[in-house]
Amino acid sequence: MLTTERPKLKATPGPRLSRLPHIQHLDADTRHEIDVVSAILPFKVNNYVLDELIDWDRAPDDPIYRLTFPHRDMLSPELFDGVAALLRSDLARPERTAEIARLRMQLNPHPGDQLQANVPQMDDEPVNGLQHKYRETVLVFPGQGQTCHSYCGYCFRWAQFIGIADLKQATPGPDPALGYLRNHREVSDVLFTGGDPMIMSTERLKEYVEPLLDWPYDHVRNLRFGTKALGYWPYRFTTDTDADELLRFIERLSDSGKQVAIMTHFSHPRELDTTAVRTAIRRLRDAGAILRAQAPIVRHVNDDAETWASMWRTMTHLGISPYYMFVERDTGASNYFELPLHNAYQVYRDALSSVSGLERTARGPVMSASPGKVIIDGIADVAGERVFCCRFLQARDPNWVGRPFFAAFDEQAVWFDDLRPAFGQNWFWDSNSNIDGHPAGTTQTACVI
Ligand SMILES: *Cc1c(COP(=O)(O)O)cnc(C)c1O
Ligand code: SF4
């Protein structure tokens, strides 16, 4: 238990994890794995995750441990051995760093072409730190919100955390975002994302959000915040020094008629179990926020129906609506976390069928792909061919939203790019797919969005 009245965030970065007292009872191989894998992928685990979430009697197989700690299988055996040899070698530091950087390139640090793909333009200049892909919703990546209280092993923003991605995917401050929003009256939703916007102080956050209360932004009805703070640091909403100020601010936003939607990210039902998270949820609801939940389905953490069913039941009970079950992207440790689409679909369906209608509000499995957000609605035999029944929940072209389409069934497919059109046809959007000069492929967006 964290016993102090005001717990202080203490985050341990990857290379120091193997020295934590918590893991001294794990065997020497496990500790060695931690050093090797964290030399190449970014990790960060804080005291709340260590002391309140991980069940150390079950580590290293505990799901929260698997979510947050390095594991040998996150790297291919060759890459693992390569990094291990490098750590043993007596290479000087600069050479070692260069060699590590070279090895990292094997992990697809920039999936798709996405960094620039959805960045909007204003006065013929890109507005960095914004994404505007779907008509109604603009994503804002505040420059000061590009980290998290702890990291998820499956995070597709890992390259950015480690400093090798193009960090221009962050606003220098609120002004460019505000300027763009003033000029786009079709936008009803602004989604602050990251990293985690709740890593910012309340004061910083206000600089971005408060201006939206003024009349030039009356078209913005919904203020969304994509955050995993409830899962990783619920004290952000309870005892942190500016927690009360944050809650009062949220109350002011809701009172002014804006809907404040906290887009939470829970990977496992245990994250909903602590006193701290329950207090935080209660306070957010009392301040007038609505809460929704989204997370990817990943192996070792939540790849079974009972985990999702139990998560959906508990959330709904606590006043959080299940929203999306995502499929994780093809970057970093994706081989370790990924599961075939047909398995993800089966888990979704089994979970759905064991909860009540009120708890069935999550849509999934969903992939954020280049043409749009694609849901797998089912697997069927049609005209002698086994197919995935798919549909756009969001699309670059609003006319595609809701349109069903069929992909050839593929047992091995784990991501949208693995799918091929069924019946020997083309994708119905293919003639349009180059509107922005981007072939179909992965788009990386924000935290599990
Ligand atoms: C998912 C997503 C959104 C939000 O979509 P909703 O279905 O409205 O939640 C907005 N922009 C991008 C780029 C997204 O990937
Ligand atoms: S998935 Fe989201 S919460 Fe997790 S590390 Fe990535 S940005 Fe942070």
From TrEMBL:
UniProt xrefs under PANTHER family: L-LYSINE 2,3-AMINOMUTASE AQ_1632-RELATED (PTHR30538:SF0), LYSINE 2,3-AMINOMUTASE-RELATED (PTHR30538)
Superkingdom per UniProt: Bacteria
Keywords (A to Z) from UniProt: 4Fe-4S, Iron, Iron-sulfur, Metal-binding, Pyridoxal phosphate, S-adenosyl-L-methionine
Cofactor(s) named in the record: pyridoxal 5'-phosphate
InterPro entries with a match to the protein in the record: Aldolase_TIM, Lys_aminomutase/Glu_NH3_mut, rSAM, rSAM_sf
Name of the protein: L-lysine 2,3-aminomutase
MF-aspect GO terms: 4 iron, 4 sulfur cluster binding; catalytic activity; metal ion binding
Taxonomic placement: Bacteria, Bacillati, Actinomycetota, Actinomycetes, Mycobacteriales
CDD domains per UniProt: Radical_SAM
